[in-house]
Write a structure and sequence with these properties.
- With about 140 residues, the protein is mostly helical.
- The protein has one domain.
- Helices cover about 40% and strands about 5% of the residues.
- A hairpin with a 4-residue loop joins strand 3 and strand 4.
- The longest helix has 22 residues, at about 80-105.
């Protein structure tokens, strides 16, 4: 349910970039994970009600806080979500940064610092993100 506002998180009404940057934030601040409490805490109408009320009606969840996947009862399976795919991309970015740090720690730290200068100061522009991401992928350290 928190943090909200200018903080990075994975709510439906947040930009996808905020979700992907969660794991750049993890690298930047030497964190190794992100706790998801609700990957599939569905309401009775999960595609219509993305802000369910919990705790006997006392708590309204932020949009999408309760689920990253959705039920597909006809196939006894689940549907993925764009947010889950973006979270996976962010995790892959984190792993690339970890590997880069083994080869060129200064570059890995610089990229993370430029992407996430401070807790509430992070890249919000997709073009700026792509520029730093490309620098990560094309680092001479991979040679």
């Amino acid at each position: 349910m928190n943090p909200q506002g200018g903080y990075l998180n994975r709510f439906i009404d947040y930009s996808l970039l905020k979700m992907r940057l969660l794991h750049w934030f993890n690298f930047r601040h030497n964190l190794n994970g992100y706790l998801h409490w609700g990957g599939n805490y569905w309401s009775d109408k999960p595609f219509e009600n993305v802000e369910p009320v919990i705790n006997d009606g006392r708590t309204l969840l932020p949009p999408g806080d309760n689920a990253l996947v959705y039920p597909n009862p006809e196939k006894l399976s689940i549907y993925s979500s764009i947010r889950l795919a973006v979270m996976r991309e962010g995790i892959e970015d984190y792993e690339l940064l970890v590997e880069l740090a083994k080869r060129d720690p200064e570059l890995a730290e610089r990229l993370a610092r430029e992407m996430i200068p401070a807790v509430l100061d992070y890249t919000r522009d997709n073009d700026a993100f792509q520029k730093l991401y490309q620098e990560l992928l094309e680092s001479p350290a991979w040679d």
